[in-house]
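Q: Hi! First time doing this. I have a protein sequence and I read that you can turn it into a structure. Is that right? Here it is:
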Amino acid sequence: HVRQSVNIPYDEIAQRIAQVAMDRDAPIVLYCRSGRRSGIAEQTLRQLGYRQVENRGGLHDMQRSGYHTN
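A: Yes, that's right. Below is the predicted 3D structure, encoded as structure tokens:
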């Protein structure tokens, strides 16, 4: 789990994203175990009008990029 992140399962993202990111121009970084589910979440968010969505792939990719994990 990346520190200060919010866990929203990809199949719940459409219903729950407004609870944590009401601003559709706010940057959103996505990740999952492998990158597949975060890719699905990215497509969903773009369809909902979120413009700054970045899929960082899997958790190991995030760790290699310098994100701190618990």
